[in-house]
Amino acid sequence: GEYRGVINNIETRSVLGFCDYGIVTLGDGEPFYLYYGAKRLVGRPDFWADDTPSPQSRVEILAVAENDSVALTVLKFGQPVAGAILKCNAPDGETVALTTDANGLVRWPRKGAGNYACYVGVTTNETGTKAGQAFNSKRDYATLDFTLDD
Predict the structure, then answer these.
(1) What's the mean pLDDT when you consider all of the chain?
(2) Confidence band, pLDDT 50/70/90 cuts, at residue 1
(3) CB 86 within 8 A of CB 106
(4) How far apart (Å, rounded) are the C-alpha atoms in residues 142 and 18?
(5) Is 10 left (phi over 0), alpha (psi -120 to 50) or beta?
(6) Three-state secondary structure string covering 48-112
(7) Does the predicted model carry a pTM greater than 0.85?
(8) pLDDT tens sequence across 63-111
(9) In a 3-state reduction of DSSP, which class is residue 12?
(10) Torsion angle of C-alpha atoms 120, 37, 124, 126, degrees rounded to 10
(11) Which of 54, 136, 64, 55 is nearest to 105 (CA)?
(12) What are the angstrom distances between the C-alpha of 129 and each of 14, 37, 133?
């Protein structure tokens, strides 16, 4: 499904959405618990103020615009995720994979004006049950997109 709405508050800096998919099995793979969070940054990059994770987020990508790049930080429950691999799509059509450092940080070079989008997945080897269904791991996915005018 999808939710649609109109943002009437000019001070809105981001729009977030979350979905608890529950237990998922892909093909012949083992069942896993899937949770997804999406974020869209709104407006000019100097207005984003995207330096604090949302309390509803399990995994989140924070973004800070710099002169020639955008600093991306991957957090899980508010803590940096080292070695996270972000799949990033630039407005020029280039797709790159970027890996975070020990502080969960990576810089994505700007590629001009247009829409930028990235996602990251973090897997935890944790077994359990949810609604009577067993799972062998937890997978948290987060997406982030924004538009740059430069």
Answers:
(1) 91
(2) low
(3) yes
(4) 9
(5) alpha
(6) CCCCCCCCCCCEEEEEEECCCEEEEEEEECCEECCCCEEEEECCCCCEEEEECCCCCEEEEECCC
(7) yes
(8) 999 989 999 999 999 999 999 999 999 999 999 999 999 999 999 999 9
(9) coil
(10) -160
(11) 64
(12) 33, 21, 5
Q: Are 69 and 109 in contact (CB under 8 A)?
A: yes
Distance from C-alpha of 140 to C-alpha of 24, rounded to nearest angstrom? 12
Would you put residue 63 in left (φ > 0), alpha (ψ -120 to 50) or beta?
Answer: beta
Largest pairwise CA distance in the chain: 51
Higher pLDDT: 150 or 72? It is 72
- In angstroms, what is the C-alpha Rg of the chain? 16
For residue 27, the 8-state DSSP code is T
Side-chain-facing half-sphere of 136: CA atoms under 13 Å: 5
Stretch (H or E) spanning 128: strand 128-130
